[in-house]
Design a protein that fits this description.
Elements: E1 7-16, E2 21-31, E3 34-45, H1 47-61, E4 67-72, H2 75-90, H3 104-115, E5 118-123
Parallel strand pairs: 1-4, 4-5
Antiparallel strand pairs: 1-2, 2-3
């Protein structure tokens, strides 16, 4: 991590009832002694879209490049941004089975937003006692 950049801890979670159905995301951002919470809801969405939108909104809300520790309970989001995305981009946003990547609009936004920062992507087991999950 670049020691000249601010260190921001971000915690995100997304959910959906019905999948698709009504859903939303929640974000907690911490910098030193400051905490900011963001959330939004949608009448028709999916769980995976909400798991992606939380980190996107958090990263896009930062006004300067930062060191980020981003914690989520979504393996889909974490594996997608750290592993799968490289192959998807090489294959013009197609999966290994030659089908279009789902939620490509959000994956492109997450990719662009994460390029502005140094992000350490962390996973935490969902609903297992973590205070920000």
């Amino acid at each position: 991590m670049n020691t000249e950049l601010k260190l921001i801890h971000i915690f995100t979670d997304g959910s959906c009832l019905g999948n698709p159905g009504p859903g939303g995301y929640g974000i907690v951002m911490k910098y030193k002694h400051h905490t900011k919470e963001l959330s939004d809801g949608f009448s028709l969405t999916t769980n995976n879209r909400m798991e992606l939108l939380g980190p996107i909104i958090a990263l896009e809300s930062l006004k300067e490049p930062c060191n980020i520790v981003l914690t989520s309970d979504s393996q889909y989001m974490r594996q997608g941004i750290t592993q799968w995305i490289h192959g998807w981009k090489k294959k013009n946003w197609m999966t290994a089975s030659r089908t279009p990547v789902k939620n490509v609009d959000l994956w492109k936004r997450l990719d662009a937003a994460s390029q502005q920062h140094k992000v350490d992507w962390q996973w935490v087991k969902g609903h297992a006692g973590h205070p920000e999950n």
